[in-house]
Amino acid sequence: MRNLADTLSRSEIFRSGHALCPGCPGGMIFRWITKALGKDSILSMGATCLALPTGIYPSSVEIPSIYIAMAPAPAAVSGISAAIKVLKRKGRIREDRKINVFAISGDGSSGDIGMASLSGAAERDDDGIYFCFDNEAYMNTGIQRSGLTPQFSWTTSTLKGKVEKKKDLPRIMAAHDIPYVATVSVGYPEDFISKIEKARDMGPGFKYFHIHAPCPTGWRFPESKTIEVARLAVETGFWTLYEVDHGSTRITYQPPKLRPVMDYLQLQGRFEGLSDGNVRELQRGIHEKWEHQITLTPE
Amino acid sequence: MEKRKMLTGNYAAAHGARLARVEVVPVYPITPQTHIMEKMAAFVESGELDAEFVPVESEHSAMAVAIAAQATGARTFTASSSQGLVYMHENLFVASGLRLPVVMAMVNRTIGAPTTICPDLSDSLDQRDTGWIQIYTESAQEAHDMIIQAYRVGEDERVLLPVGICFEGMIISHYMEPVEILDQGKVDRFLPPYRPEHVVLDPDRPMSVHQLVLDDSYYTEYKYQQQVAMEEAKGVIQEVDEAFGETFGRRYGGLISTEMMEDAEVALLTLGSMAPTARAVVSQLREEEDMPIGLVKLRAFRPFPDEELKESLSNLKAVAVLERDVSIGAGGIVYLELAHCLGKKHDSPLLTNYIMGLGGRDVTFEEIKDTALNLFEERDAEVMTNPIRWYQVRGLS
Ligand SMILES: Cc1ncc(C[n+]2csc(CCOP(=O)(O)OP(=O)(O)O)c2C)c(N)n1
Q1: Cβ-Cβ contacts under 8 Å for B75 (sequence gap 6 or more)
Q2: How much is the ipTM here?
Q3: Burial class, B104, CB count within 10 angstroms (exposed 0-12 / middle 13-18 / buried 19+)
């Protein structure tokens, strides 16, 4: 807890006037990330709602940032960190100066169109921290399904609910054998921030964060309920908080007892009209996932 | 000291990039460019070049890495061809829009389908609206020299635009020629280091690079400034060519080079590897037949040298544009631009267009001579009939 209080009392790098929707968890996320990483940072943005804070003049973020295009936020991490490396060797950046290179991109940008770029940067283990802001659809273009939209969810391109399951991006990233993979949620700031600080203080390499980020606009819930929805995702086991630190997996928050998934689903318009069968299927999926994940955890 | 060596165009270009002391090199393999990638990797591995080589997973990422590294303050170099160049299309606009003077060797190859690994200029000419300067070269030496000139042109604060140095795959990329590798000390004096002020990702001076300019804000003005920079580039390309000549004793003529144009009544206009063959044809017709013909070699396609072309062509009777590319449904791309630039003034020459050498088909001395002789036959016509000609399509008479 001291850790969190220390971090959050640091001066603001993220400023108001950011153009995110009311109730969007992006503001909190930006604040925590920038506070944890500090001013000596360079940000690469992908195409995501979260590009709005840096993308509208004047930037709400007091660190340098670049947006190239939808897919290549990971490639930009590679380019920035390669440049820093060579400029340090040549004495144009002080050798002992630590600059945190990080990227923020959406679930569609990361896991669909940018998959090759993300996988490439991870495979090369280029130095940086990558944050996938997973609001479970293409929100910036108005709520279309992505590969990371959960099964049965309504979107404007899956009017009867998405047929396919959600792509498990953090597991794909862990399969790259990078130093660190973490799943986090906007409902659990201590867990979130301590993981960022851990990744920040590791040696060079590619670290991947997957942020579960409830979106009131796209998921159809009142904008005052963002944190409640985020916490219920974890308390029902729909979303799991874990880390893979140099290959060893650990659940970082274990709900005392999993609540029924319906508690989570019923708050959201996107899951309205699910059949009992659909709900049972989701519940079964959660139990299977938990059995699998618990066997991965040594404790 | 300059060193003379037998080199392919690809290796000559790679040596040019090495001498320019490039700092970040992201490249993805594609024939006929791959040897550049391999040579750059070898230079970095051996320590001959102090740079970061980034073995990216696609050309799209190659250009993104180049953009991000250049924006962080490093001089970058990449190379591509064909499908690869088309694959990075989206990011080419970003490099120019952010005014980042990335340099790329564009080693020309057709774009499928059908697929061949042989050259035509369709791939780089297809990038003509991306805001990149494009210079076409006819030899390994010219490619070598122009990579170095490209950095000085692109990084000039009047310009700040990315530059593509184009040369045809196989014909130039793979054949060996004697090349003078420039002296590092002289290159260092000719080319100052890259120290950007306008765009740099520096935590001490935070800037948000590439913002939205919604509604009635300044999109038009951004684009207008790029246009102004392209116009400025015309003079800078010329100046840099002169300065290069003073330092290294070799000049190329800047935007265009004209040869044997005194009292010419007709001219061949071409670019890239067809230029040497056309030169041989023109000098034979001049020397042996005393025919009044000249040669214009187009070097810069962007910026398009409209004034220079008007000046050297407007008093001629007829001009044939010979080119290894086509915009299907319109005509040869260079021809279309030239026709637009000369307009319909009463003193404009008649124009014809020969689309030839597509897919690397050999363009011979006799064939170019044939186009030249046609020009003499047609030079006094009222109008040029069927000006756009697909040269010797098999199965058609
Ligand atoms: C090549 C390309 N295709 C499409 C788009 C349009 N586009 C912009 S943002 C966006 C949605 C992004 O969705 P996601 O990555 O999930 O992030 P979110 O907006 O949900 O945060 C799309 C499709 C684009 N910018 N570039």
Answers
A1: B20, B21, B22, B23, B24, B151, B155, B193, B194
A2: 0.96
A3: buried
Say if residue B13 is in the same domain as residue B150: yes
Find the helix packing angle between B306-313 and B333-342, rounded to 10°: 70
Q: Which of B209, B214, B222 to mutate to test binding with chain A, by most A CBs within 10 Å of its CB?
A: B209
CB contact under 8 A, A83 and B52: yes
Predicted local confidence at residue B215, as pLDDT: 76
CA separation for the pair A294, A283 (Å, rounded): 16
Protein residue with least CA distance to atom 26, ligand 1: A70
Q: Confirm whether B397 is domain-assigned.
A: no
Binned at pLDDT 50, 70 and 90, residue B286 comes out as very high
Same domain, B166 and B39: yes
Identify the domain containing residue B52 by its residue range.
3-248
Interface membership of B115 toward A (CB under 8 Å)? no
Please answer yes or no on whether A117 and B57 come within 8 Å at the CB atom: yes
Tell me if the bond preceding B113 is cis, omega within 30° of 0: yes
**Residue ending a domain, choose from B248, B275, B297:** B248
Residue B282 is given by DSSP the state H
Instruction: Closest CB to B26: pick one of A63, A68, A79.
Output: A79
Last residue of a domain, one of B232, B248, B264: B248
Residue ranges around ligand 1 (CB below 6 Å) = A 47-50, 70, 106-109, 133, 135, 137-141, 146
B64 touches chain A (CB under 8 A): yes
Residues B190, B324 within the same domain: no
Q: According to CATH, what is the number of the domain A4-296? A: 3.40.50.970
Specify the residue for token string 């380019």: A79
B284 lies in the same domain as B305: yes
Looking at the structure, do residues B238 and B266 belong to the same domain, yes or no? no
Q: Which of B61, B71, B74 sits opposite A72 (nearest CB)?
A: B61
| Whether B30 and B98 share a structural domain | yes
**B50, B68, B208 member nearest A86 (Cβ):** B50
Chain A CB contacts of B211 under 8 Å are: 54-57, 59, 67
Tell me the whole-structure pTM to 2 decimals.
0.97
The predicted-structure confidence for A36-82, as pLDDT tens digits, reads as follows: 999 999 999 999 999 999 888 888 899 999 999 999 999 999 999 99
Both B261 and B233 in a single domain? no
- Nearest residue (CA) to ligand 1, atom 2: A70
What are the φ and ψ backbone dihedral angles of A159, each rounded to 5 degrees? Answer: -65, -30
**Which atom of ligand 1 is found nearest the CA of A107?**
16
Beta pairing partners, B320 = B268, B352
Confidence band (pLDDT; 50, 70, 90) for B38? very high
Answer yes or no: do B61 and A116 touch at CB < 8 A: yes
Domain ranges of chain A: 4-296
